[in-house]
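Hey,
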Amino acid sequence: MIKSSFDTERISVRIGLVFSRFGITPNTWTLMALVPAFFGFLSILSGDLFGSLVLFAAAGAIDAIDGAVAKVTGSVTAFGGFLDGVMDRYVEIFMYIGLLFYTLPLELEFYLPTPVWVSLLIFGALMPTYVTAYSHHRGVVTDPVDHRRMEGLIGRNERLWIIYIGMLLGCMEEVFLVYFIAILALLANVTALQRIWFVFEHKKERLT
């Protein structure tokens, strides 16, 4: 995975030390991310792409805070991890559904209609997590080490950075937004296919 090349632990600790002073629990920080995400969704529906970008970036920043605060305060819990993962998906899908209804000129289509690319992106955003969770649920891949090995090309953080850049460039030329949505849809689905392939290969290893 791309993010494996970067060590963000030190930055996370600094963020946690700063925001832990507010006395807000990690789970509360997690839920707070829904507020800018919801208004970002409304903003993009109204056609304000830049305003939506700012609000979703704020939601992403809050998402970085909750885990950092949990680490430095020693309050990391299984339920907190569950809640964080669920809210992450809500925030991300809010953005993609907003883009699904964002009005773009028809002449900007890139091989497929833009709503089709966004729909593929939604699949690509949800399927990698589903594959991991379901393979664990069915007892096929249960080792946390194997879960890390099956991550694939890009994860949620990379998806967000790519779509943020696409939205920013789309504020200047909307065609860039279309290109970035299409590229991200392909990368996200390749990641899902990588995880599915890993599960098949893992099953073969267990049988040999």
